[in-house]
Write a structure and sequence with these properties.
Elements lengths: L1 H49 L3 E7 L1 E17 L2 E6 L3 E6 L6 E2 L4 E7 L1 H54 L2 E2 L4 E2 L2 H48 L3 E3 L4 E4 L8 E2 L2 E4 L6 E4 L1 E7 L6 E7 L11 E6 L2 E20 L2 E10 L11 E18 L3 E4 L2 E8 L2 E6 L1 E5 L3 E6 L6 E7 L24 E5 L1
Length: 453
């Protein structure tokens, strides 16, 4: 029994000891929390004072060149090369050149012994060419005929006016020696009207004669081109280096044709047998613009271009044409422009990806500031400067601006220091960072950092 009482007393003593230990630990924790609160309060006071320190990003007003441009992407639509093609069918009998040779326009490249079908097509093409030549002569004669007719009708108008004047001042018809009848008076009046309308018709024909002649000559060129495509002699369509040339004696060229189901017209397909790279050839790029940018673009504007295949090279050119009809895809409207590249000896091929910067405007030797340095107050452009430790807004007049720079016309001078951004410090949990309000981050745009208390 005594043993049990001793065991119970021992357990009570251990329990009391544990409770006393916990109480002592709580005192230590409380003391620690109190010290931590004091330190935190002191740190808050110190960091709170640091919040009074503002950092200013500064920049100097400098002179330079400002280029305003818009960007567009697309592909090379035509390369500085011309295909060598033929529509003739038959066996190659002679080849005058080899792949890699330099040729001149019109130079003979090869001869073909035409098959019967090709000979028939060539003969029909020659007749079309001769008819086109006759059409030019007919159009030229029509212009001369219209010119003569104008002079004749001009005189007829003068004669009709004289007859009307005589009729109005005399009652006797000089031809009949009798008094004018109502019909004779009406005929005289109508004669002038007829002469005037005939003159106008002939004048219009004379004015349109040059267009008729040009059209007739275009038909001659087209007919000649068709005849040459069907000719037994293959010639170079341009001057330059001949590449991808694939003809040799004994090779048979098979011509192919398609017949239209609607008109029954037969179309002969051209076969490409080589390529001539022309050093004088001009490249074209087709790029697309949004509806916001297309209104800023017009033919003749300069452009710089980069091609993915040549990332280290920049090409130049100008806007050749602007298509304002637009295309809609997935609810987005785009407009196509053609950029004509300046001559280059670099190998550029169709469908290569291209990026174009179209220059809208540019100015040299002007005052420039970072675009984020300019603010607006009640419609007035201002920049901020530091005077006697205080930020002051200075009214300025602005001009051109790009994504990064703005032209200053008046209000400040070259070399002046301006504020581009104000960086407000913050107090994060570790007290080691500040909050940068600059849209560029850090010093931004090459500016200087200055801290003001």
């Amino acid at each position: 029994m005594a043993k049990k009482e001793n065991l119970s007393k021992s357990r009570k003593d251990r329990f009391i000891s544990i409770i006393r230990g916990l109480l002592n630990s709580r005192k230590k924790i409380a003391v620690f929390l109190m010290i931590l609160s004091i330190v935190g309060f002191a740190g808050w006071k110190i960091l709170g004072n640091k919040k009074q320190e503002l950092q200013y990003q500064m920049a100097k007003v400098e002179k330079g060149t400002l280029v305003v441009s818009i960007s567009a992407s697309g592909t090379i639509s035509s390369a500085n090369s011309v295909g060598v093609t033929t529509k003739a069918g038959g066996t190659v009998t002679q080849v005058y050149v080899k792949d890699g040779d330099t040729v001149v326009k019109g130079q003979k490249l090869a001869e073909i012994n035409l098959d019967d079908e090709a000979k028939e097509r060539q003969a029909a093409s020659w007749v079309s060419y001769l008819n086109a030549l006759e059409g030019v002569k007919t159009a030229e004669a029509g212009k001369i005929t219209a010119d003569i007719g104008m002079w004749e009708e001009r005189q007829a108008i003068f004669d009709a006016i004289d007859d009307i004047d005589y009729k109005n001042n005399n009652s006797i018809n000089p031809d009949t020696k009798k008094e004018y009848t109502d019909s004779e008076r009406m005929i005289i009046d109508k004669t002038l009207e007829e002469a005037q309308k005939t003159f106008v018709a002939l004048e219009l024909k004379y004015k349109n004669a040059d267009a008729d002649i040009a059209y007739a000559k275009a038909k001659v060129a087209s007919s000649l081109s068709s005849y040459q495509q069907l000719s037994s002699t293959i010639t170079a369509p341009a001057s330059g280096k001949l590449t991808n040339f694939s003809l040799s004696p004994g090779v048979y060229i098979q011509s192919s044709s398609t017949t239209s189901n609607e008109t029954g017209a037969v179309t002969i397909s051209s076969q490409k047998i080589g390529v001539i790279k022309s050093p004088e050839g001009r490249l074209q790029a087709t790029v697309n613009l949004s509806e916001i940018d297309i209104i800023k673009v017009e033919p003749g504007q300069k452009s710089t271009l980069t091609i993915d295949a040549y990332p280290d090279k920049t090409f130049t050119g100008s806007v050749l044409s602007v298509d304002t009809s637009g295309k809609i895809s997935s609810g987005v409207t785009t407009y196509t422009i053609i950029v004509l590249l300046d001559s280059t000896i670099i190998d550029i091929y169709p469908n290569m990806a291209v990026n174009a910067n179209i220059i809208l405007d540019s100015k040299s030797d002007i005052l420039l500031v970072p675009v984020n340095a300019v603010q607006s107050q009640n419609g007035q452009a201002t920049v901020r400067v530091m005077q006697n430790g205080q930020v002051k807004n200075i009214p300025v007049e602005t001009g051109l601006f790009s994504d990064t720079q703005t032209e200053i016309i008046s209000g400040i001078s070259e070399g002046d220091e301006i504020i581009t951004n104000i960086i407000t410090p913050t107090v994060p949990s570790n007290g080691s960072q500040t909050r940068d309000t600059s849209p560029f981050g850090g010093a931004g745009a090459g500016g200087m950092m200055r801290m003001v208390r």
